[in-house]
Amino acid sequence: MPDKSFNAFKIAQEQFDKVADYLGLDQATRDLLRNPLREYHFLIPVRMDDGSVKVFQGFRVQHNDARGPAKGGVRFHPQETIDTVKALAMWMTWKCSVVDIPLGGGKGGVVCDPHNLSEREQENLCRGWVRQVAYNIGPYLDVPAPDVMTSGQHMVWMMDEFEKIHNGRFPGVITGKPQGMGGSLGRTEATGYGVVYVLREALSEMGIDIRKTKAAFQGFGNVSRHAVELYSQYGGVPLCVSCWDQEEQKAFTYLKEDGIDLQELLKITNRFGEIDKDEARKLGYEVLPGDAWIEQDVDILVPAALEHQITGENASRISPRVKIVVEGANGPTTPDADLILQERGIFVIPDFLANAGGVTCSYFEQVQCNMNYFWTKDEVLSKLDTKMTEAYLQVSALARERKLYMRDAAYVIAIQRVVEACKWRGWI
Ligand code: NAD
């Protein structure tokens, strides 16, 4: 359950301020970049299946679009807040910049729990969301995508509503679409695979053989399961994954000493990435408390579920064996936990670099939609690997050269590029 006192936007601003000091940015530049350029708050009335009308709160935030149209997912979450959306929009700006794609940062959300909504109600919610921002988003303005608890189906409903309003076909308005509907091959795998491409590079720089490593994953959704998949293909041992349990309203960790089997776990996982506990036990999994993933005797931790998961309180429980934390989720590590990881010499690959594979592939999706010509999956993944590897090597080289923490090095590169774009445009 998210902690109410936790404010992701404050964290995003603190992280920015630290780098702004380091770069000596002037006041106007700070004022421009530590807040979103635009934010939209709106209500979405939805006719429910029982005939009643329920009103949902929706948001869209465009943090900065100096380098290109805003880009970022739409989250459906019962604890969604505007500050989370603002933080995530800001992180999208840095993410697109750090991997050097010509897009800015945006994010959207709806306060809702899709567990309690039928397909038809979700469709109406998606269409209602688009109606409220139909003139504020678009292929050349702001391009949404799937995120927590939204899928390709939600994106197609959104695209369809946008196309009805604007009377045309605009596949570039949204990414994360299914194949055949303008989607790119490789998009589903992109974020999780991207996490493992940068992990592979980090291990190689440290001289560690990936086949001799073990990793603990938090989450079992899109990001985590594809990270598990590629990490296993590279010969690593995924010791455990954790996920939410809707029935008990808390998370559990699923562990197998010789490594979890992705395919067998997928067979007992629902569409929200929640594993059936009883079935898992029958398959020989140890079912541990939700936070047990963090204290396992592994080399690598991959938080890939939610923000605010590695904190000042639980960071001390991380095993001395852990060498790398690769942040698959957005904002999983709090600033006080960052200090502990830094002191302990744990190498952190920060979220907006590690999980940039999704947005990079979304950019590829737009490029392909514009050409109306689609690449093979191998082509997409190999372009993705090149982009992620280049970005990782630039950040790690800067971190070494200036003796910076990886998160700070990634920020320095990303923020500098956005500042440059704002200067070129004459905004500052
Ligand atoms: P998802 O909805 O597919 O999966 C989320 C997973 O986290 C599920 O398995 C869920 O059961 C689990 N979970 C929820 N609460 C938990 C808890 N308290 N403890 C343990 N597990 C919990 O979401 P996703 O697309 O995999 O995204 C995960 C994270 O990665 C989010 O922070 C998201 O913003 C970020 N991200 C996603 C993408 C993408 O392309 N999907 C791209 C970049 C960043």
Write the layout of secondary structure elements.
Blueprint: H1 8-23, H2 27-33, E1 38-47, E2 53-64, E3 70-77, H3 82-98, E4 105-111, H4 119-133, E5 142-146, H5 152-166, H6 187-206, E6 214-218, H7 222-233, E7 237-245, E8 250-255, H8 262-266, H9 277-282, E9 286-289, E10 300-303, E11 324-326, H10 335-343, E12 347-349, H11 351-354, H12 357-371, H13 377-402, H14 406-424
Parallel strand pairs: 3-4, 3-5, 6-7, 6-10, 10-11, 11-12
Antiparallel strand pairs: 1-2, 2-4, 7-8, 8-9
Helix pairs in contact: 1-3, 1-14, 3-14, 4-5, 6-7, 6-12, 6-13, 12-13, 13-14
The structure holds nicotinamide-adenine-dinucleotide.
Describe the protein's architecture and organization.
The protein is α/β, with parallel strands linked by helices. The protein folds into two domains: 36-185, 3-Layer(aba) Sandwich (Rossmann fold); 188-354, NAD(P)-binding Rossmann-like Domain (Rossmann fold, 3-Layer(aba) Sandwich). 43% of the residues lie in helices and 18% in strands. It has 14 helices and twelve strands. Helix 6 (187-206) crosses helix 7 and helix 12 (357-371) packs across helix 13. The relative contact order is 0.14. Bound molecules: nicotinamide-adenine-dinucleotide (NAD).
